[in-house]
Amino acid sequence: MSNQSPLKYIAGLIPLARVSAPQFVAAVIREAIVTGALSGSEPLRQDLIATELNTSKVPVREALRELEGQGLVQFMPNRGFMVTPPSLNEMNECFELRAVLEPLAVRHSVPLSTPEQLDAVERIIDEFEKVQDPLLSSQWNLSLHTALYAPAQMKHLENMITRAHTIAQRYTHIYMQLRSAGIDSQDEHRAILAAYRAKDVEAAVALMTTHLKQASDEAAEYLKDHFEV
């Protein structure tokens, strides 16, 4: 990371096109929390955030309310907004939700996927393999999973997955930082893509289930002594 503040650095990585000011601010703060640039229980001063992101306090306030609804920040009387502390219960809940929701999305997506959609997924994987900055990896990972589930055109399911995935990614980042791990290879994603191309629904579901379980088991085992319940 450069010598910039975490929020300014992350803001430079997020495209401004087609998003409102509150959406942009929410995206920056969300990424800062997910990647650990903002730590648990850290106070979120609206005036400071507004200055760093070159905006007013109104979109910052709207963004914080949105993130409060997603469980990433919380409002404390007489103290204002703060980053929600990580917890073992939240981590387990999010991983369990992903284990239920994402194989379901795969089951509906494989039969409907087109060669063009799968070519787009492959391009994301190719670009993902080049990513060295952990601050970028969560965005690429979410983009990849979103592209895999897009053929199903199940927007409510996609929204639930995105929320669970975003919070779960927070714990994946903490896990990677504590064990000094690099960004994972894309072999498992490529295997899932191959099952999509073969229209093998059961293989794709099984591969996604294994992929999610391995990630959650590793993170849970490593982090179980680092958080409160």
UniProtKB/TrEMBL annotation:
Keywords: DNA-binding, Transcription, Transcription regulation
Superkingdom of the source species: Bacteria
GO molecular function per UniProt: DNA binding; DNA-binding transcription factor activity
SUPFAM superfamilies associated with the record: GntR ligand-binding domain-like (SSF48008), Winged helix' DNA-binding domain (SSF46785)
HTH gntR-type domain span: 19-86
Xref: PANTHER family: TRANSCRIPTIONAL REGULATOR, GNTR FAMILY, TRANSCRIPTIONAL REGULATORY PROTEIN
Name of the protein: HTH gntR-type domain-containing protein
Organism annotation: Pseudomonas fluorescens
